[in-house]
Amino acid sequence: MQVILLHPRLAQAKSITLTKKHLLLAMLVFLAAVAVGAVLLQALTLRFGTGITSPFLLGLVAQSETDQASRQDKFLKQNLAFMAVRLGQMQAQLVRLDALGERVQGLAGVKPEDFNFKALPGRGGAAPSSLERQTGPDLSLTDFQKLLDAMTTDVEHRADYMNVLESTLMADKIQSKLLPTNQPVKVNYVASGFGVRFDPFTGRSTFHEGIDFPAPTGTPIVAAAGGVVIASEFHNDYGNMLEIDHGNDIVTRYAHASRLLVHIGDIVKRGQHVADIGSTGRSTGAHLHFEVRVKGVAQDPNKFLAAGADLAKVVALR
Asked: Cα–Cα distance between 277 and 288 in angstroms, integer?
């Protein structure tokens, strides 16, 4: 573009050639001037807004304030909706954590009146001074969101820990139920103990691999622990004999029964009626011959039964 300048003082006409660079520079200068003017106008409006009497300027100020309030209100609503969702998630996690806590509480044997997961713990402390109240920082929306995120993560970690604790306690409880600590017959004394004794048929010193519970024929025999029946048969020495596998290489044997009530492969519970006392096989009278074997080696059943009696006393005192 070429611009020709004419003036009486000029001896001859002058021409100026405008390139694209000149036009672009002029446009940038114009936009900068508009922006600076807008900023100055807003600054003057905010500073001297109370003294403005022009309806046009008052309308601009009111529109600007309305737009800003609308944007702020929209921002707050969006953040409140987000926090409401997060709060609902936390409430669901807390309900799950309470349920986990109650299950763990039951497995651990803690009474509900001693520790209530749903009750809020007591809190307190000295009131802050007036200086602390004045100088303490206000909690911003961003800070609140960070605290909410941290609390959500903490609740998730605690729930994971409670799950692991519940699994461990459940495994221990199952394991304790598989130990033969329940007395198989309700009698007050033992006719023959574990260890060396004189054989009632030969009179020679022999090793007795179990203990004998004397009782009338037909007296119920119950499983000393839960397990799987691996033998239910007649044996020349043991008569009607029953063997239960409790896992971890622990097996209990019940001999000289008059009647067997379970079969090979049956799953029995702790305390379940599995046989009746009799005098079958190599026996001088009605009694139960009871053995506990670990990896095939006979153990003193009294050690297991004594542990069960001690545990029953502890549970009764709770």
From this structure: 6
